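Hello,

I think I submitted the NAP job twice by accident. Can you confirm which output corresponds to this input? Input:
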Amino acid sequence: MTGFSMDNFSLKGKVALVTGASYGIGFAIASALAAAGAEIAFNEISQTAMNKGLASYREAGIDAHGYVADVTDEQAVNDLLLDIEKDFDTTPDILVNNAGIIKRIPMLEMSVADWRQVVDIDLTGPFIVSKAVLPGMIRKGHGKIINICSMMSELGRETVSAYAAAKGGLKMLTRNICSEYGEANIQCNAIGPGYIATPQTAPLRERQADGSRHPFDQFIIAKTPAARWGTTADLQGPAVFLASDASNFVNGHVLYVDGGILAYIGKQPA
Ligand code: NAP
Ligand code: GCO
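Support: Only one job matched these inputs. Its output is below.
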């Protein structure tokens, strides 16, 4: 045998911070990291959202620690890391920069304030949180950062200019953290989910007044070889892989979990 063991996928003894993880993709990823053995810390913007998240983790049998911190607030993030170190007696080994928003507004109608809010949360937030966790990872001699990118890290579409610019930038931040800290045994990669059924995409899947599927829903089904929307569960295995020793020589990579969208020209209309 070559000495490979499934223990390479184990996260036992590791502490993971997943941002914005009360529900949706973040909650699913945190749950998978916990199933692989990691201890979980997560943050939310409000006490209400954090409490809801804690209840969901407890219902899933996960002893997660929840914190209130806006990822765009550097002082709040630095305080978050101090609280995590106090509660876990160590700093995070794994960071998942998941927190994010989208605003679907035609560019000419989008205010600079709307643009700034999306870029601040989706790009500057991961910068701030990564900057806060990297010193501890460097001291430990290892670390895993997983940024949640998007189809919009590669493709544009109408009404999502700020989001696409932020997620494109997040792809390059991923590569830059890889470049600057790879020598410290830090692996920084990204997951690029396709179209996933979560509250964020609910408006794109709403049934029409006549009961028919939303036009965008039909569009995505035609653009996806798997002919379905992704589920948050589809992202769990890739997240455990990128958080584990099994990916120690994978760095600066965006792993697209999109059912094949980026490889496919799309189904010819009937
Ligand atoms: P979601 O359902 O809207 O959840 C986003 C989470 O981020 C919420 O818990 C939200 O908290 C939190 N959040 C927002 N702003 C924050 C801030 N400033 N500080 C801390 N937390 C904040 O989104 P999702 O669909 O699960 O997506 C999660 C990530 O995956 C996002 O980065 C998104 O861009 C990305 N993504 C999603 C898809 C998809 O199809 N769903 C595909 C590709 C990539 P509140 O609830 O309190 O606002
Ligand atoms: C949209 C969607 C997408 C998804 C995701 C795709 O309006 O186009 O919200 O942006 O959220 O980012 O990967």
